Structure formats: structure tokens, C-alpha cells
Amino acid sequence: MLSEVLLVSAPGKVILHGEHAVVHGKVALAVALNLRTFLRLQPHSSGKVDLSLPNIGIKRSWDVARLQLLDTSFLEQGDVTAPTPEQVEKLKEVAGLPDDCAVTKRLAVLTFLYLYLSIFRKQRTLPSLDVVVWSELPPGAGLGSSAAYSVCLAAALLTVCEEIPNPLKDGEHINRWTKEDLELINKWAFQGERVIHGNPSGVDNAVSTWGGALRYQQGKIASLKRPPALQILLTNTRVPRSTKALVAGVRNRLLKFPEIVAPLLTSIDAISLECERVLGEMGEAPALEQYHVLEELIDMNQHHLNALGVGHASLDQLCQVTRAHGLHSKLTGAGGGGCGITLLKPGLEQPEVEATKQALTSCGFDCWETSVGAPGVSVHSATSLESRVRQALDGL
Ligand code: PMV
């Protein structure tokens, strides 16, 4: 068991192209969003496991001795196991949460306990740990915040019990695990996602683990080679939406107008493929012309998504405001409100970006300037001087 402090981070995700079409077997491109979740794990000898999630107001502590006495054989079903509803019920007893505990809080605690007890079940003694997780990602906005949480937990817990080595060498500020180790992190993170979402596609945890850009089609996930890191504005319209209702709406429209809607889905598929091709060609030194192609693809897809019925007045406003500043936007994720992305071309003057952000904020939207194609789960030195790690730590 390692005794040093571990500091881990993992990115959220946005869908670049292919939302909704992916439900009907088409290609989607998902990219790592450089808004990250951070985890600090400190092994100690207090005989307690402490979990603190400041963003959602969770502070819990369990006696290791009590957890040690639990019959956790319900978790022993082979190697990396899928949580069953019965297991989740048993974990609820262990968690000892009040009945009126909000669902988000409950699921976050259950996921932690599930991963802690499962990953350490081969150890003779359970470790005493202090775990803090905080995030730059707004929860419940379709940005993969739960996946980033599960990925951070899986990476840190597997590392502290030396199931995978800590890749950080002396004097380094940041490093990543090997491909094999990332595969194991991803497998466990997927089980964490299953505790939270029941039956997720696995794309969110894959993007958070691997970073960069992924192509996703009918359960098959593949990393894009050398995707460029694109600067974007990410805007949350703060209009709540139900992914389930929007997905059902598209299905109904497809059933009602198959000859009209099926070609839209085929066209969105072609947009994803064209975008994949352009990203693959952009490499280290992208040309402005390639950005113009990406902008055209964004515009066409946004129109298609509107035709599928998943637009919203707030998203139209987002597109108009950014268009007035010469920028191109589309919704990302389920639509009907939620989030949108705006591509920032190289050479754009910072005052222009600031003016756009200001205009979006005055519409009542939340707006972040960030990048996509960010690195996946990473380990940072505990004394890391990276300003955002420091800022986040100071805020605790
Ligand atoms: O709400 P999000 O960002 O998780 O996106 C949903 C994406 C859809 O294609 C609309 C649904 C899905 O399951 O793929």
C-alpha cells in the first residue's frame, strides 16, 4: 500500500457531432473537455475512511474496522464485476445515509463505497484514507461529471493499493498511466458509472480515461489518432432538459416522417465522418481553411438538430450571439436547452473572445473558455504548482 498523497485529475466530455444520430446506430465524436475533476487521496492511520465532496456538500466518515467486519462476499463475483441492484441495496445499508438524502449525493457515496470495497477486497486489511473530490464541471449538464468522478476514484484507488504503479517520477509535475493501466482504470470506472446510471454506454468514462477524441458507434469505441486541441467556448444555457424525453421525441419524428428524418440522420453521420477526417489531417499545424470546414460542419449539424426537434430558443440565441461575433456554435448533448459549443479559431483577438463571453453571460448563460481534445486521467505531484490545481486546493 502506498503511503504518499495522490493527486489525480480527469476531464469531462462534450459531443462534437453525432448526438441523437448515435442512438440510431450512427457515428458520434466525443472529445475530452478541459474542465476537470480533481481528487486528493491521503493514506493515514486514523482507522477511518473519510470522503469529502465539497461541490455537493458531502462529508462522510466510516470506521475501517466496521467496514472490515462486513460480509462483502456480495462483491466477489470474478474480476471486474458489474454492480447488481441487490449489491447496490446492500451498499445503501453500509453507507448509512439519511432517507431524505438527495439522489446525486446518494449515488456519489454509493459509487465511492462500491469502488473502495471492490478494489480493496483482495487486501487483507482495508486502508484508512482521506479522499477529497472536487470539480470544475457543473453536475447534470451532460458534460460527463459522474464519469470523471468514477475515473478519478478508480485511478487513485488502484494506484494506492499498487494494483497499478504511480507513473509520476521524482521531480515531475504531471504524468499519465500506461495503456494497460488505463484499460484497468477504464474498466473499473465503467462499473462506477453503472452504479450511477444503471446502463451507460461507456463513452463518457472512455473519454475521461483516454482523453483526446473518440469515435463511438454501436458500442464500439476507438481513439482518434493525434486529434488537435481545439479552443472552444462552452456555454450552459441553464435551461433544464430531459435527455430521455428528447431521445423519445426524435424516435417519434423518425417513425412519423421516416423519409424525411432518416436522411437527416444519414447526413449527421456524414458530418461526423467528415469532421473525423479533418481532425485527423489537422495535426500539429492546422490551417485556417480546416477551421472553416469545421465551422461549416457545425452550422449544418445545428440545422439538422433543429430539424430533429431538439433545438431550443436559448440555443438559437446562443448561435445568434456568437454569429454576431463571427463565431459558429451548435448544441452539444441532448439539446432542448443544456449546453452549446462555439469554435474559437486561431488568431482570434482576446478582446473579441471576452466580448463574446460577456454577451453570452448577459443572456443569463454560464460560459467557459476551455479546450477539447484534452489529456485523459493524469496524476499530478502533490506540491504541483499548476495554478488551477493550486486554486482548487486553496478553495477547499
Ligand atoms: O445529455 P448528454 O450529453 O449525455 O447527451 C445525450 C446524447 C444523446 O445522443 C442525445 C443520447 C445518447 O444516449 O447518446
From TrEMBL:
EC numbers for this chain: 2.7.1.36
Record's signal peptide: none
Location of the protein in the cell: Cytoplasm; Peroxisome
A molecular-function term among this protein's GO annotations: identical protein binding
Cofactor(s) the record lists: Mg(2+)
Listed pathway(s): Isoprenoid biosynthesis; isopentenyl diphosphate biosynthesis via mevalonate pathway; isopentenyl diphosphate from (R)-mevalonate: step 1/3
Stated family: Belongs to the GHMP kinase family. Mevalonate kinase subfamily.
Described purpose of this protein according to its UniProt entry: Catalyzes the phosphorylation of mevalonate to mevalonate 5-phosphate, a key step in isoprenoid and cholesterol biosynthesis.
All residue ranges annotated as the GHMP kinase N-terminal domain in the record: 120-212
Assembly: Homodimer.
GO BP: cholesterol biosynthetic process; isopentenyl diphosphate biosynthetic process, mevalonate pathway; negative regulation of inflammatory response
Record GO cellular component, one term: peroxisome
PROSITE patterns per record: GHMP_KINASES_ATP
Protein name as annotated: Mevalonate kinase
Keyword Metal-binding recorded: yes
Location of the GHMP kinase C-terminal domain: 294-349
UniProt keyword annotations, A-Z: ATP-binding, Cholesterol biosynthesis, Cholesterol metabolism, Cytoplasm, Kinase, Lipid biosynthesis, Lipid metabolism, Magnesium, Metal-binding, Nucleotide-binding, Peroxisome, Steroid biosynthesis, Steroid metabolism, Sterol biosynthesis, Sterol metabolism, Transferase
Catalytic reaction(s) noted: (R)-mevalonate + ATP = (R)-5-phosphomevalonate + ADP + H(+)
One Pfam family matching this protein: GHMP_kinases_N
